[in-house]
Amino acid sequence: MTALLGLSRVIDSINERLGKVAAWAIVVAILVSAINAIIRRIFGVSSNAWLELQWYLFGAVFMLCAAWTLKANEHIRIDIVSSRLSKRGRDGIDVFGHLFFLFPFVALLLWLSIPYFINSYRSGEVSSNAGGLLIWPAKGLILLGFISMFFQWLSELIKRVAIMQGKLADEETSGHSVEAEAERLIQEIGTVNTPGAGGTPPGDGVS
């Protein structure tokens, strides 16, 4: 398990760095969009290449930041059921979901995206739009995204099993639970309205 946890840390580090780099594509896309709009407005010139570059950049963010999102546990959860279970029950649901939902999805899309990219690369596929860009780099982003997601799936599975075995501390908090967030807000409001706690007691405001 020690070796597997070491592998998990390497995967986490790579995907986090990849995600942070890819996130800058949002800034580049904004600049490209702004420059394209200015040129079109001032000179009356437009380019399909500029438009497609924006799509590529947004696609890069979506595909290359997905694994980082999973690593940071920021993906959408519906915890109406899981928040009522014990810690071990939630861990069990996570392992079940990783094995029977996430893995088949990632494996299928990875298997389909390999020939999808290879065929496009070999043919030198170009956009059908006049002045458009090459298509295969965009399809390569899809493949790279699912490769990173596959390895992040493996990392998350390793960590969850290690946590259940007591060999790894669970760094995740209950902050993603709706009930926990509501309880935290209630406690903060109570602290603010408690005399001597730095807040203003009810009825002591200036009228």
In what range is the share of β-strand residues? under 5%
Average pLDDT rating:
84
Rg value: 24 Å
Total of helices: 7
Shape: globular
Alpha-beta content class: mainly alpha
Terminal residue distance: 65 Å
Helix content: over 70%
Q: Report the count of strand segments.
A: 0
Low-confidence residue ranges: 173-177
H and E order: HHHHHHH
Largest sheet: none
How would you describe the overall organization of this protein?
By secondary structure, the chain is mainly alpha-helical. Helix content is 70%, strand content 0%. It contains seven helices and no strands. Residues 173-177 have low confidence and may be disordered.
Please outline what is shown here.
With 207 residues, this protein is mainly α.
Keyphrases for this structure?
207 residues
Secondary structure layout:
Elements: H1 2-23, H2 25-43, H3 48-64, H4 66-71, H5 87-123, H6 136-164, H7 178-192
